[in-house]
Amino acid sequence: MLTWQLWCTLLCILWFYFLWSRRRFYRLIFQIPGPLGYPLVGMAHKLLNKEDVLPVFKHYLDKHGSLVFSWLGLMPFVLASDPQLAQEILNSQHCVNKCLIYKAIDDASGRGLFSLKEPHWSAHRRLINPAFALKVLQSFLPIFNAETTSLLKVVDSLVDCGEKNLIPLMRSLALNISTQTTMGSEVNCSEYIKNNKLLEAYRSLLKTVTDMCLSPWLLSRTVRQLLGREKKYAKAKTQINGFLFKLIESKLAKGSEAHLETEEDKNIFLNLATDLVHRGIFTKQEVKNHSANIVFAAFETTTNTVVYTLILLAMFPEYQEKAFQEPRSLFPSTGDFEVTYRDTQNMVYLDLIMNESMRVLAPVPIVARQTMQDVRLSNGVVIPKGVQIVVDIFHLHRDKKVWGENAETFNPDHFLPIHMQDRHPYSFIPFTKGIRNCIGWRYALISIKVILAKLLRNYKFSTSFKFEDFEFVEDITLEFKTVPLLEIQRRNC
Ligand code: HEM
Predict the structure, then answer these.
(1) Angular region, 335: left φ>0, alpha ψ -120 to 50, beta rest
(2) 58: domain CATH number?
(3) Do 479 and 470 form a contact (C-beta atoms < 8 A)?
(4) Which residues contact 35 (CB under 8 A, 6 or more apart)?
(5) What's the 209 CA to ligand 1 centre distance in angstroms?
(6) Could you give the count of Cα atoms lying within 13 Å of 1 in the half-sphere of its Cβ?
(7) Which protein residues are within 6 Å of ligand 1, measured from CB?
(8) Residue 281, Ramachandran bin (φ over 0: left; ψ between -120 and 50: alpha; else beta)
(9) Residues of the chain with pLDDT > 70: what percent?
(10) Residue 12, in any domain of the structure
């Protein structure tokens, strides 16, 4: 029998061994300022609440500068909110893997493009890239147009009905679009989509995923069971996986290259991916994971960007009026019209509006990586292998040193060429940049432009909510504590 003294000695030895094995992290304490927090906990206790994440980060960035070091439990982590450092991190071959909190996404939707690790990620990304080529995206314009036309009918019923929350409506539109463009337009007929069951399942999954990111103990199935969270989560997962597997099986059953006349058709994600299954390069499970990831990554970000842009324009009517004049000159009559790819390129003021919207309300406020090797930054700091790095896009986009005194207000002139020419190329990174940027960035810009052009041409939006009253929640995507409501009036000319 070991006495308690022996146990204590053993524990002390283990503890010192543990500290010794992590000695490479300690030099960061002297190189980068930041709060050390409590032993074993670090500053994790401050980040348990989704509403606290952005204010806590802001507090530390204001106090310690744009590079901060701290601990999340036993995990060393660096917070970066400076364009030059963001560029170096996002372009480093040693920062391609995602941070440990992305395990929540793996658990929910399977390890797909979003969270794959090297060397698999770069191989898969190369294989999937053709599904996001410009020609393929141009072939989606009929889907973007048709789905927005259906939306207009619903928005019409909300005219002069007081202030409304447009998020649920837009979520349904964005999910319809992203499933059709990823899995083929046949999904449009699926009852599962029509009766919003897929949307409900995705929402339910997303809720648990965001909670798991900040409360990693929820990654354990047993803990979820004990807390009564498992049943709904498992059901949503089963429903989404079942839906996707059914589509994949049906596409595989049709055989490779069936009915695919154009190069664009062949490159629609599901066609491209099932062809890779036929050739033994992808497994069915991998196709399912990638599909779930792409739809997951597409619909919430697109929804928020459209609605948040409308909210901002409602708060700043002078910019809404300018934004309205552009589609009005291209589409002289109200009602429905077809937006072509060329039209999207001609709406240049809308570019300024969308950029400014994604600057002040970054749709993905933070992204995170894990160093695979030591990374030397230009300020002399060496970040050792195994550190989690968080790039705080939200505060980078609102940094007065980068964007001037009016950084925290909405003004599309920030993006006039004259103001952009001297800005650091990484001062605006809503889709990130560098090695592992958003594969859907061009898709997002085109689809959002089609939706906004049709809405702004036909309706005028107003709100009683004030810009200064925004309160944010970090939910993987940026959410509001209180969603501003919008009042809609029809434009008659
Ligand atoms: C306004 C809309 C969007 C925004 C702001 C946005 C933003 C981002 C950001 C910041 C990342 C990097 C995440 C990270 O490093 O952790 C990302 C990755 C990704 N996005 Fe988007 N996204 C948008 C729309 C889309 C759309 C429409 C699609 C697909 C149709 C898409 C698919 C993806 C995928 C698959 C990844 C993972 C890429 C990889 O790791 O190789 N996104 N997105």
Answers:
(1) left
(2) 1.10.630.10
(3) no
(4) 43, 60, 64, 68, 70
(5) 16
(6) 2
(7) 98, 113-114, 125, 178, 293-294, 297-298, 301-302, 305, 363-364, 367, 430-432, 436, 438-440, 443-444
(8) alpha
(9) 98
(10) no
Residue 313 CA to ligand 1 centre (angstroms): 24
**Is 1 part of any domain?**
no
19 burial type by CB count under 10 A (0-12 exposed, 13-18 middle, 19+ buried)? exposed
Q: Ligand 1 atom 16: the closest Cα is on which residue? A: 367
- Structural domains counted in the chain: 1
Say yes or no to pLDDT of 22 above 80: no
pLDDT tens digits for 442-491? 999 999 999 999 999 999 999 999 999 999 999 899 999 999 999 999 99
Query: Is 389 domain-assigned?
Result: yes
Q: Give phi and psi for 473, each to the nearest 5.
A: -130, 130
Do the domain assignments include residue 105? yes
Range of the domain at 129: 24-490
Task: Give the residue whose CA is nearest to atom 27 of ligand 1.
Answer: 298
Atom of ligand 1 nearest to the CA of 305: 1
| pLDDT band, very low/low/confident/very high, at 89 (cuts 50, 70, 90) | very high
Q: What is the pLDDT of residues 431-446, one digit of tens each?
A: 999 999 999 999 999 9
Contacts of 153 (CB under 8 A, 6+ apart): none
Residue with tokens 């005028």: 460
Other Cβ atoms closer than 10 A to 316: 19
Rounded Cα distance between 292 and 286, Å, is 10
Distance, in Å, from the CA atom of 221 to the CA atom of 209, rounded to the nearest integer, reads: 13
Distance 74 CA to ligand 1 centre (A): 29
